[in-house]
């Protein structure tokens, strides 16, 4: 029995692909749209291998509203959207800000316009912990609760906080318009999910993060060191006020994160709350040195690193207070950092070319 239909933008990307899998496993119908800017179509095969179900796929750009309209017309049963499609590299966003605003903000306007036209009311949005900026500028805001004032300190983060406002204003106006027309407007709802640091891969070893080009994040870079694609990891600063001098982040297994989307969508459908923001994090902070140690343990040998200057824009501590999601979404992380490292290593070791190679046969037979 199909419980609902979900349009997943950016669904061939890292977090989108795991969420598509979680949705299919929960008996949602899934329609993916993605322009494959940072992903591969092969992911559709992997999702099918793991779930036994094949999502529909459309290669399109979310800024192309006519193309989005066509998808809604071909799938009139779509009643929810999970919106991942975006550009996400913090450093690059300072270099090509117009492109970041075009894809992330204008792309979201295009999507919301199409949703309005087709009367689709629930949207779950990929926001980011980066919207908080440096929460240590306030007393008692670490671990970070949702009521911490937002203040992104980079262009990418500002596109995310802008889209949070966009969705909030859009849903509020749709509810208002419905009320004026004597209707409830309860069908219009938004979940702003502020993820902390996603990590890990599928424990089967056939699905994982497959960034095209140079990765930006700590664990994918460490994985490249482990398979010899990179000589060493540069540790960006060891003079932070932490136990070992390196910066603290809240790493969350991508399977837990994907389940968070499912729970958030179910919450919107059951409670019609309007727009709400939730942190998706573990509540546990780990330093860069903790991560090097954990991933080295998974690999079974020490990985080379060198301490370098701080990276511009980095903050000391981004650890979530996930209490709200724990209570309201009935969601909490179940997998550990160690699980994320083990799964990432399995994926990396057996798929050095990511999705540009056949899935390892031993895992298919398992
Ligand atoms: P990803 O790059 O793997 O996935 C994004 C997908 O969007 C890609 O498949 C890409 O091809 C697609 N895309 C980009 N521009 C598009 C366009 N114009 N039209 C259609 N598709 C387009 O990234 P991810 O890590 O899976 O991130 C997913 C979402 O989560 C993004 O919105 C990102 O900003 C957000 N997020 C990511 C992290 C993280 O560390 N990975 C943390 C917080 C928030
Ligand atoms: C983690 C820690 C680095 C690389 C970014 C975005 C955030 C979200 C997740 C999208 C930091 C250190 C890293 C390296 C290092 N993405 N590091 N050497 O910066 O916490 O968050 O990705 O929304 O918005 O800002 O993640 O993985 O880049 O870094 O020492 O080669 O690892 O300084 O302390 P970050 P990250």
TrEMBL record:
<dbReference type="InterPro" id="IPR001509">
    <property type="entry name" value="Epimerase_deHydtase"/>
</dbReference>
<dbReference type="GO" id="GO:0005829">
    <property type="term" value="C:cytosol"/>
</dbReference>
<protein>
    <recommendedName>
        <fullName>UDP-glucose 4-epimerase</fullName>
        <ecNumber>5.1.3.2</ecNumber>
    </recommendedName>
</protein>
<comment type="pathway">
    <text>Carbohydrate metabolism; hexose metabolism.</text>
</comment>
<comment type="subunit">
    <text>Homodimer.</text>
</comment>
<dbReference type="Pfam" id="PF01370">
    <property type="entry name" value="Epimerase"/>
</dbReference>
<feature type="domain" description="NAD-dependent epimerase/dehydratase">
    <location>
        <begin position="6"/>
        <end position="281"/>
    </location>
</feature>
<comment type="function">
    <text>Mutarotase converts alpha-aldose to the beta-anomer. It is active on D-glucose, L-arabinose, D-xylose, D-galactose, maltose and lactose.</text>
</comment>
<feature type="compositionally biased region" description="Basic and acidic residues">
    <location>
        <begin position="359"/>
        <end position="366"/>
    </location>
</feature>
<keyword id="KW-0299">Galactose metabolism</keyword>
<comment type="similarity">
    <text>Belongs to the NAD(P)-dependent epimerase/dehydratase family.</text>
</comment>
<dbReference type="GO" id="GO:0003978">
    <property type="term" value="F:UDP-glucose 4-epimerase activity"/>
</dbReference>
<keyword id="KW-0119">Carbohydrate metabolism</keyword>
<keyword id="KW-0413">Isomerase</keyword>
<comment type="similarity">
    <text>In the C-terminal section; belongs to the aldose epimerase family.</text>
</comment>
<dbReference type="InterPro" id="IPR036291">
    <property type="entry name" value="NAD(P)-bd_dom_sf"/>
</dbReference>
<keyword id="KW-0520">NAD</keyword>
<comment type="pathway">
    <text>Carbohydrate metabolism; galactose metabolism.</text>
</comment>
<dbReference type="InterPro" id="IPR005886">
    <property type="entry name" value="UDP_G4E"/>
</dbReference>
<dbReference type="GO" id="GO:0006012">
    <property type="term" value="P:galactose metabolic process"/>
</dbReference>
<feature type="region of interest" description="Disordered">
    <location>
        <begin position="350"/>
        <end position="366"/>
    </location>
</feature>
């Amino acid at each position: 029995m199909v419980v609902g239909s979900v349009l997943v933008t950016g669904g061939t990307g890292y977090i989108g692909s795991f969420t598509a899998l979680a949705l299919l496993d929960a008996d949602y119908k899934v329609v993916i749209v993605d322009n494959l800017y940072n992903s591969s179509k092969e992911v559709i095969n992997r999702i099918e291998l793991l779930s036994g179900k094949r999502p529909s796929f459309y290669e399109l750009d979310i800024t192309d509203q006519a193309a989005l309209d066509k998808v809604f017309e071909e799938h009139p049963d779509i009643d929810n959207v999970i919106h991942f499609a975006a550009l996400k590299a913090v450093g690059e966003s300072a270099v090509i800000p117009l492109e970041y605003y075009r894809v992330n903000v204008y792309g979201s306007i295009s999507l919301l316009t199409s949703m309005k036209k087709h009367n689709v009311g629930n949207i779950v949005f990929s926001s980011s912990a980066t919207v908080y900026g440096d929460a240590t500028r306030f007393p008692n805001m670490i671990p970070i609760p949702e009521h911490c004032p937002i203040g992104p300190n980079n262009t990418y983060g500002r596109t995310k906080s802008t889209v949070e406002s966009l969705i909030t204003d859009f849903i509020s106006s749709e509810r208002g318009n419905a009320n004026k027309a004597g209707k409830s407007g309860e069908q219009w709802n938004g979940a702003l999910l502020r993820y902390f640091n996603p990590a890990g891969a599928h424990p089967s070893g056939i699905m994982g993060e497959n960034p095209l080009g140079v990765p930006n994040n700590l664990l994918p870079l460490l994985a490249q060191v482990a398979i010899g694609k990179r000589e060493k990891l540069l540790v960006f600063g060891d003079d932070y006020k932490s136990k070992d001098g390196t910066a603290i982040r809240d790493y969350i297994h991508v399977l837990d994160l994907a389940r968070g989307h499912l729970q958030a969508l179910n919450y919107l459908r059951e409670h019609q709350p309007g727009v709400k923001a939730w942190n998706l994090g573990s509540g546990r902070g780990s330093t860069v040195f903790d991560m090097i140690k954990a991933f080295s343990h998974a690999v079974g040998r020490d990985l080379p690193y060198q301490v370098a200057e701080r990276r511009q824009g980095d903050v000391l501590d981004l650890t979530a207070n996930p209490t709200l999601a724990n209570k309201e979404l009935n969601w909490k992380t179940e997998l550990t950092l160690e699980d994320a490292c083990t799964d990432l290593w399995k994926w990396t070791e057996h798929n050095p070319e990511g999705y540009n190679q056949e899935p390892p046969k031993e895992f298919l037979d398992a």
